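Section 5: illustrative case.
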């Protein structure tokens, strides 16, 4: 009976995962897939192509000739504190777990967009502009979570935009390396 309960428990977890993934927008499904295969998209595509019937391979060839297939980096403009000059920052769309602490309130969420100067955190909660926040960011290219301080610079329907402050140089370099990896 214990083995049966264990099997049923595994199926419940699998069913919950299926439902969660099915409800994700297509772009987030792709991001999750890319993270699960550790960025080896080419290898996985080759495996799928090998198993395709010849007529589907021909269809794919035709489609590839019509569709742009390279992702472009998202670029944003950032003003420094005194707005004396503008600087361009490369951002990376992702779905990375993050633990956040705002005053006495802690919550888990996902970073859905990251740069070397800030991040967009998915949340339904609204925080005032300037609100201090502490984040524990787990980058896939680093074994330990980075503890980063920031301030809320925007709060909207997609979540909160946070600009880092007092960012350690090593943390900035690790974030930049993550952004450049698997583009």
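Designed sequence:
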């Amino acid at each position: 009976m214990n083995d049966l309960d264990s099997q049923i428990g595994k199926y419940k977890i699998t069913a919950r995962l299926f439902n969660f993934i099915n409800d994700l927008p297509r772009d987030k499904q792709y991001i999750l897939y890319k993270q699960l295969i550790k960025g080896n998209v080419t290898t996985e595509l080759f495996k799928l192509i090998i198993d395709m019937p010849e007529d589907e391979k021909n269809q794919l060839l035709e489609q590839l000739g019509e569709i742009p297939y390279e992702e472009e980096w998202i670029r944003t403009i950032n003003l420094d504190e005194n707005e004396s000059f503008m600087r361009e920052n490369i951002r990376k769309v992702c779905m990375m777990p993050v633990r956040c602490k705002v005053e006495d309130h802690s919550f888990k969420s996902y970073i859905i967009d990251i740069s070397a100067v800030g991040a967009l955190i998915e949340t339904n909660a609204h925080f005032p502009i300037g609100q201090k926040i502490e984040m524990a960011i787990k980058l896939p290219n680093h074994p330990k979570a980075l503890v980063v301080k920031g301030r809320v610079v925007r709060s909207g329907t997609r979540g909160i935009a946070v600009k880092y402050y007092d960012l350690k140089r090593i943390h900035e370099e690790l974030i930049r390396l993550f952004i450049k990896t698997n583009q």
